[in-house]
Write a structure and sequence with these properties.
The protein contains four helices and two strands; from the N terminus they run H-H-H-H-E-E. It is mainly alpha-helical. Strands 1-2 form a two-stranded antiparallel sheet. The longest helix is centred in the middle third of the chain and has 32 residues.
Length: 140
């Protein structure tokens, strides 16, 4: 009996999106182990992923009445929420550990997440570059 292309597409779609739930785990573990406020994580990206998954949950339930598809995308949404929440928690913990302005613990009297990552570079304008383009160069 021949297999319809739509059935193949559905199997591949389901397999990939089920596997994606497990693909979030390494990201979650890395955030959990991070000690610098998870600065590489973009809230915008992960919130957009979460909203996209949530809209697919609504589509699966309301349009195609596919509760398995809704469950898979609900799990994807939950993973995105977990990543955003864990990142927020890590950043708050870093701010607490660094202290608040005026308490003697904060760098330069400012509270900044990821300060260590940007301490060694500065943004300046290179007068020799065309049209005064900005460039990153190490501080002397």
């Amino acid at each position: 009996m021949p297999v319809a292309p739509a059935d193949v597409a559905l199997v591949v779609f389901t397999a990939c999106n089920t596997a994606r739930v497990f693909a979030y785990l390494p990201q979650i573990v890395k955030i959990g182990r991070d000690t610098q406020g998870a600065t590489a994580i973009s809230y915008t990206t992960w919130i957009l992923f979460g909203v996209s998954h949530l809209s697919t949950v609504a589509y699966a339930i309301l349009v195609v009445d596919d509760w398995r598809m809704a469950a898979v995308f609900a799990a994807n949404t939950l993973c995105c929420v977990l990543i955003v929440g864990l990142t927020a928690w890590k950043r708050a913990a870093l701010r607490t550990a660094r202290g608040r302005p005026g308490d003697g613990k904060c760098l330069h009297g400012r509270e900044r997440v990821g300060m260590a990552a940007i301490k060694s570079v500065s943004l300046h304008t290179d007068p020799e570059a065309s049209r005064g383009a900005a460039s990153w160069k190490p501080r002397s």
